[in-house]
Amino acid sequence: MKALYLVYISACLALAGCASTTAYAPAETAEDYGYYSTKLGDNRYRISFNGNTSTSQNTVKDYALLRAAELTLQEGGSWFQVVDRGSDKETRNTPRTEVRRTDVIERDCGLLGCETRRRPTYTTTIGVESGTERSKYSSSLEILVGSGDMPSDDGRYYDAKDLASTLRAAM
Predict the structure, then answer these.
(1) E strands within 147-161?
(2) How far apart are CA 90 and CA 81, in angstroms?
(3) What b/e readout covers 73-112, taking b as 16+ CB neighbours within 10 angstroms?
(4) What is the pLDDT of residue 6?
(5) DSSP code of 54?
(6) Residue 7's pLDDT band (boundaries 50, 70, 90)?
(7) How far apart are CA 18 and CA 94, in angstroms?
(8) Could you tell me whether strands 157-159 and 79-110 are parallel, antiparallel, or unpaired per DSSP bridges?
(9) What are the tens digits of pLDDT across the range 89-114?
(10) Is the separation of the CB atoms in 144 and 83 below 8 Å?
C-alpha cells in the first residue's frame, strides 16, 4: 500500500512541475517550448514562440514580439515590419487521478469470542472528465528587419528598442 501512495505522490509532484509558465528562452527545435527563429532571406525571419498549458495566449504573443525586437537589434536593425502573423491553439483533456483510502472493519467470531479488526484499503481512479480541458498556444511572426527611419506607423511597423524595453518591463 505504501508503494501505491508513493506512486500517487510522485505523480502529483510531476504534475506540479508542469504548472509553471514557459520561460522566455530558446527552444531546441521549432516544436519545443520557447522561441525559435529561422532566417528566410535577406532581412527576413520567421519567429515562433510555443507556450505550455500554463502560458496565456497574450504572453505567447508578447514573447514572439519580444524575440522579433531582440533579433532585429542583434542584426543591426532599428525597426521591423510584421509581414505575416499567425497563432495556434491546441486543446487536450487532462486525466484526473484520485486515490481514496477507506477503512474496512472485519469481525471474526469463534468459540472463545469475537475479534474486530480495522484495515485500510485504497482505491485508485483515473479518468477523463469533461471540463478538464487545457490549452497551449503558439504564435509565429514573419518579419522584415530595417534600419534608419521607420516607414510608417500603421500597426505593422515596430521600433525594436522601444518594444523590447516595454515588453521586458511588463515581464
Answers:
(1) 157-159
(2) 27
(3) beeebbbbbbeebeeeeeeeeeeeeebeeeeeeeeeeeee
(4) 46
(5) T
(6) very low
(7) 12
(8) antiparallel
(9) 988 876 677 778 888 888 888 888 88
(10) yes
Residue 20: CB atoms within 10 A of its CB come to 10
* pLDDT value at 16 more than 70: no
Angle 161-144-28 (CA atoms, 0-180°, nearest 5)? 80
Identify the pLDDT of residue 116: 86
Environment class of 16 (CB within 10 Å of its CB; exposed 0-12, middle 13-18, buried 19+): exposed
Which pLDDT tens digit goes with each residue over 61-92?
Answer: 999 999 999 999 999 999 999 999 999 998 88
Identify the DSSP state of 98: E
Q: Which residues have a Cβ under 8 Å from the Cβ of 162 and sit 6 or more positions away?
A: none
Task: Report the C-alpha gap between 125 and 24 in whole angstroms.
Answer: 36
Task: Tell me the three cell numbers of residue 91.
Answer: 486543446
Q: Is the pTM of this model over 0.90?
A: no
Q: At what angle do helices 160-170 and 57-74 cross, to 10 degrees?
A: 140
